[in-house]
Amino acid sequence: MFIGGKWIDAENGHEFQSFNPASGETLGSLPAGEGADATKAVDAAALAFQEWSTQTAYQRSQFLYKAHSLMMADLERLATIMTEEQGKPLQAARNEVRYGADFLLWYAEEAKRVCGRTISSARADQRFLVLHQPVGVVGAITPWNYPISMITRKVAPALAAGCTIVLKPAEATPLCAKAVFEIFEKAAIPAGVVNLVTALDPGPVGEVFLKDVRVRKLTFTGSTQVGKMIARGAADQLKRISLELGGHAPFIVCSDADPVHAAKGLALVKFLNTGQACISPNRIFVHSNIVETFLKELTRKVAVMKSGSGFDPGVRIGPLVNDTALEKVDRQVQDAIKKGARLVSGGERLTENGLDKGCFYAPTILTHVDSGMTIYREETFGPVAPVIEYENEDDLLAMANDTHYGLASYVYTRDLKKAFRLFEGLHFGIIGINDINPTSAAAPFGGMKESGLGREGSSEGINEYLETKLVGLSV
Ligand code: NAD
Question: Does any domain span residue 444?
Fold first, then answer.
């Protein structure tokens, strides 16, 4: 753990292990932190806040610039650790490190653009001034699926705003977190400004974040279920919260779209990170006029997708995170088949050629999926493409919006009017129109409804770490 600028063990002396999900091999041991360690980290962050919050934005941004260049220089090592510990193919891991580093660069610059304003008053002798100040100590909790970029997406804006932070990474990917904090250490970020508490049981650390009054802000990325629990807990002290939660993205292919182009796009975005992405398409609506060509191309693409270790050349599909994930994916597929879905490809665990040592599930295509199936409602987080054929475009919006999630959605159309109607009518925070990658450090990322609260990235991202203060002045 990294607390107050020092690498230390857990107070209880306990450790837990990190595993390679492709092979089951042990990668390393880490301190199994608990509440006492989290409190120690909050002590360090509260102390460091006094100095850090009074540095100029120009001073703070220098540390972020430094961390960015160190991260880019260390790209290959970081990507290797990620492929080992999280399982995604090495090239995808490299892309994630670049994306993660981008947040450091973006917020190094954005730090200097936190501006207040003056407001006219109805009284001639009165002036209003608005200024923004850092919220205080931040408690951050991150997931395993994007184990590096989800850290920098929180740490960079928090530091830019003048906050200090205590981060608890996912128990499945602590080595990735450790590697990121080694970069922060090398960048000479002052002691206590960034703190890392690794834990096998997240509960006690989460409790400290919720109960300690010095933690003024909680930022969480993970499941909707845990996010809601955090929101309830934070209500006691009315702590500020940002929640980036689950999704159930519709992927709409309109009758006028190019079905081959759309199928290529779907094959790329659906199987990215083995479907373990919050923005992964979960319901693929394809117009009946073009569904045959779409499925033909999709099946062709899926047939050549190689599963295996992310280090093997040509591998597109890495392992799922653990057995529980594997069972959940298979349960959804079997439920759909039992209720009338047709299996076009996949639909089973992969065990040949040594894949039985990891948690591999074949890339799967289902057709004839309907709203009575679990997969239509529940986030899959696996390599399954459920296709739903539709005929009437008037029903599209209602069908796509029929979910309690509201994170990402995708539309393929060549009709500008349709694109605008769907863009304006979809209840989702992120919409890709003929675009499967609507994400960037410069763009606001986040969801509506039960997909979360607040935004990360862009100028919105730094506002999450700022208080607004009004001064009324009689002159
Ligand atoms: P998860 O909610 O189980 O875990 C996420 C984090 O919360 C981990 O660090 C975990 O240790 C911690 N956690 C779990 N229980 C806790 C508790 N009681 N108190 C405090 N912390 C606790 O989710 P996951 O399975 O790791 O991640 C997958 C989920 O994350 C999916 O639903 C996915 O859609 C979502 N996700 C969302 C985004 C986004 O930006 N919206 C990005 C990535 C992942």
Answer: no
Count, in order, helices (H) and strands (E) of the chain: 15, 22
Question: By C-alpha distance, which of 159, 151, 166 is closest to 196?
Answer: 166
CA of 414 to the centre of ligand 1 (A): 36
The active-site residue, picked from 278, 389, 456, 464, is 278
Alpha helices in 198-341, H assignment, sequence order: 202-211, 224-235, 259-270, 291-303, 323-338
**440 within some domain:** no
Say whether both 263 and 234 belong to one domain: no
CA 34/CA 1 separation, integer angstroms: 11
Which 3 state secondary structure label does DSSP give 260? helix
CA angle 69, 148, 234 (to 5 degrees): 120
The predicted pLDDT at position 402 comes to: 97
Whether residue 439 is contained in a domain is answered as no
Test site for ligand 1: of 215, 226, 380, 455, most ligand atoms within 8 A of the Cβ: 226
Shared domain for 404 and 268, answered yes or no, is: yes
What range does the domain containing 373 cover? 249-433
CATH assignment of the domain containing 200? 3.40.605.10
- CA dihedral (118, 240, 136, 114) positive or negative: negative
Residues with CB under 6 A from ligand 1: 141-146, 150, 168, 170-171, 202-203, 206, 221-223, 226, 229, 244-247, 278, 379, 381, 407, 447, 452
How do beta strands 215-221 and 15-19 pair? unpaired
Active site residue 244: yes
Q: Are strands 215-221 and 240-244 parallel, antiparallel or unpaired?
A: parallel
pTM here is 0.98
Is there a catalytic annotation at residue 163?
no
Residue in 248, 243, 208, 213 with CA at minimum distance from that of residue 228: 243
pLDDT tens sequence across 203-242: 999 999 999 999 999 999 999 999 999 999 999 999 999 9
Q: Are residue 348 and residue 374 in the same domain, yes or no?
A: yes
Q: Is residue 200 domain-shared with residue 288, that is, in the same domain?
A: no
Residues 84 and 133 in one domain: yes
